[in-house]
Structures are given as structure tokens and as C-alpha cells.
Amino acid sequence: MPASRSLPALDRAAIEAELGFGVPDAFMKLLNLLKSGDGAVDCGADSLFHATTGLQSLLPHDMPPGTPPELFLIGSTGLDGINCGCVIHDPHLGQEYPLALYDPSAARADYLGLDFRRSLGTLMGIAWREVCRGTNVRSDDSHKHLMERVRAVIEGMRFDPDELPTEAPLGLRPRTPPGWRFAATADGLGVMAPATMFSLNQPFDDEPESFVRMEIDAYTDPARAAAKKNQHATALWHLRNGYTFWAADGLPKSLTDLMADTYHALGRHYLLTRLAQETALHGEA
């Protein structure tokens, strides 16, 4: 990788048109940082993006099998295949897309913050801690130069490097808009939707550890029943749990077809596209 190069900034309108939803300012800065590949080889880091976020870039075909459609991956930590991405329950919510770490081997995700900005601060705080420790540096001069560049990026995103969290919080759930509900799922990401889209007896407080694998009909049958009552969030809750437990064996078409119908009913066409990408990449059972 070259030591340094400057490329034109990404076209925000084009990015949003391709994704189908608005993106936060800080997210665009991250994408531009990733695209620039500002090498910093002389600083002893793979890239400024990696030094600032602790992430390595991912390509679309790097998406592990079974990645939830709601998780828009932006990078990998490089540790045991753990990835990081934006959690997008509903693109119509605006720009409150928190970041989460996702472990494909456990099919489990953990939120880094209540919203995008707070979770980005956590991610950068963890990376900043490692930079301050002198991780992967070659000399005192390169370490000092790297710290200066990383600090400049963090401050440019309006964070104080010395006040950022240096550890990921545990047990966080995302901020829920007024009139909406959040129901936990086996993968830790949950389902978020207007409360009227859930059934009255929807279990909202279950922890991911409480879910167990069942036969596929145990997910699809109650999902169909909920959909008939226009309780599409409850339907999605059943299907997402089935998705988590069955993805490793190949997603049954009966489940993915129902998920597609449910995303359509909820008006989440972006997630419908993501589901199609998953099945195209990794196939169906």
C-alpha cells in the first residue's frame, strides 16, 4: 500500500441513492477515510482507517454466511473473524444507526452504543487506547506521527480522544423512538418496529442466551399466523430467530421467502435487498 495518496471524496448523494437511505455525516467521513487508504506505512499501521477505528476494510463477498440483513458491515477487527457494522432496523428512522460487533462463529452481535455517534466514539476510543499503547509501531518517531494523525481524525469528527470510552459496554440496547418497541432476538440485534406491529404477548425482555434452536416450522408457522393479523414485527421476530439458528446449515427457502414478504410488509425494501444478497452469496437449503 502506498505511504500516502489523496482521492476524490465520495459522492454522498450517490451513496444514499445506492443504499436507499440517508447516512450520518460521521459515516461519510468513515467511508472517505476507508476509500482513501491513506497508507501511513511509515507510521507502522496498515492504514489510517485501521488505526483510527481498529477495523480492516471488508468487501461485499467477505460477508460471512448468516450475517443478519439488518447489519451493514463496514469492517473486521481482524480478531477471530469479528466484524463491525451499522445496525439498520428501518432506514426510515433517519440516521440513528448504532454500530455493533458481530461474531459469525457465535451468530451473536453486541451494540457499541445507543446510536451511531456514541457507538462510533466507543469504537474509536478502543482503537485510540491501542494507539496510545504503541500497538504495531516500528519506532518512536512513527508512533508519534501516527498518534498525531489519529488524534486529528478523531477531533475532526468532533470527539475528544481523551474522553472516549476505552471498553465496549455490555448489554446495551438501541434507543427506541416514541411509539416503537424493541424485542430481543437470538443474534442480539433484536427487532424494532412500531408497537402496533407486535402482538400483545410479544416477549420483549428475553435475553439472547434464552433462545434455543427449533425445527423450522416452529419459526415459520407462528410467523404466518402473526402476519395474518398484520403483526409483522412479531412475524419478523420469529423469522429472525430461525434465521440465526439455521443459517449455518443453509437457509430454508420457506424461511427466506417469508422474511422477504415480511420486510415488504414493513416497507423495509433495503433489508429485502440485503436478504437477496445473502441468499445470492451463500445460497439456500
Described by strand count, sense and barrel closure, the largest sheet is: 5 strands, antiparallel
Helix content percent band: 40-55%
Could you give the order of the helices and strands? HHHEEEEEHHEEHHHH
The order of strands across the largest sheet is 1-2-3-4-5
Distance between the termini: 40 Å
Which features characterize this protein?
7 strands; two-stranded antiparallel sheet; alpha+beta; 9 helices; elongated; single chain; 2 domains
Describe this structure in words.
The protein is α+β, with helices and mostly antiparallel strands. The chain folds into 2 domains: 12-163, no CATH class; 180-282, no CATH class. Helix content is 40%, strand content 11%. It has helices at residues 12-19, 25-36, 48-53, 116-132, 140-156, 217-228, 232-246, 253-265, 269-282; strands at residues 56-57, 71-76, 83-87, 99-103, 108-111, 180-183, 191-194. The strands form 2 sheets. A 5-stranded antiparallel β-sheet has the order 1-2-3-4-5. Mean pLDDT is 83; it is low at 1-7 and 38-45.
In short:
With 285 residues, the protein is of the alpha+beta class. 40% of the residues lie in helices and 11% in strands. The strands form 2 sheets. Strands 1-2-3-4-5 form a 5-stranded antiparallel sheet. A two-stranded antiparallel sheet has the order 6-7.
